[in-house]
Amino acid sequence: MLERLLQIILENAGADKGYLLLPQEQELYIEASRKLSGQVQILQHLPLHQQEEIPQGIIQYVLRSGEPLVLDDAMNDEHFGQDILIKKQKIKSLLCMPVYHQGKISMILYLENSLMTQVFTMNRLELLDVLLSQAVISLENAHLYHSLEDKVRTRTQELIQSEKMAGLGTLVAGIAHEINNPNNYILGAAYNLEIIIDKLKSFIFELADEEDANFTNLFEDYFSTINNGLTDIKTGSKNIETIVSNLRLFLRQGNNVNINFDPSKGIESIISLIISKYSQYIDISYNFSINRKIDCFPNELNQVFMNIIINACQAVMDKQKVRAFSQKGFPKVTETPLQKGFLKITNYLKDNYLAIEFKDNGCGMSEEVQKKLFEPFFTTRDVGGGKGLGMSIAYGIIEHHNGKIEIYSEIGKGSTITVLLPFKKYK
Known about the structure:
Order of helices and strands: HEEEHEHEEHHEHEEHEEHHEE
Number of helices: 9
């Protein structure tokens, strides 16, 4: 509808070029444009200051005055005839008109004609006034539709992610049970075998002649080798136990329930799960001075922490121009880093919040990226590298906990993301 409306405006106003601009956050954006001989471009959201086809002085004048401006002979106008673009494009007739909605300027229409003077007559202005009232409604509907569509897609992804986490939690709980049983047998058998070996050693040494040093030294070497093997078995078994425990802690067995939980425990479990992938390139360290439980959904918070930690590691590796793994999962390094990057995680009290700070020395983010970081489907990764939902979902989770996320970043120096969680109950 907007496409057809802009076409009608151009045809009935006698213009050969037209733009619809919307003010947003003290900036003007081109939302639609069309030339009679060109293609329609709808919802471009192009900042006015980034284009060179519209006399910006004209737009700013109308924005300040709040009144329409009609130039019957633009090139010879005593006030605006010296404008560089008017001269360059040889504009003869020009119209710039504000459109009001609920007492505020909601749109600016810019039209021009480079062939004839005195094109924009009073009759055409009255017709445009009627058409533009419809244009405002059309643009608002278009924005509402896109906004609603994004919210639906985001919520759908959140529900899918929640179901995945619940299913994965149930699966891990079952696997953990199946792994723990034989692992406990292995660990118990290793301890029992160690006791038996010690008794056997004592028995053999009692039978040996005390003066036969070669005999006792030979058996000492054998027993030492056996004991070292048993130590390796016990260490490996305990590592399995730790990995399973951390997986269960991270997923909370899939139960997305509100409990009293120390977030630092979740972060520690996450680090233990991912550190082997990044330890060659990044020093990941944590120092939690505050070990305090809060009312929260641990499963949700762990999603947030996992996302922030993975993003930080990727940013550090982007700066170093390395990739730990190819798409097939095999080790792959394109350039060896001169030195390791770092990710430091700390916590502290800030007003009535528990602040958890993630600081890295990665590639950093521009101000533009920081502004869009929590928008659904926004990503700086390559195609296939991410869906752009991680930080959007993270923002929603922290908001659900009545918390905040603060960002400080500098290009080439790194980023600091601080999650603030209140000690009071969630929403």
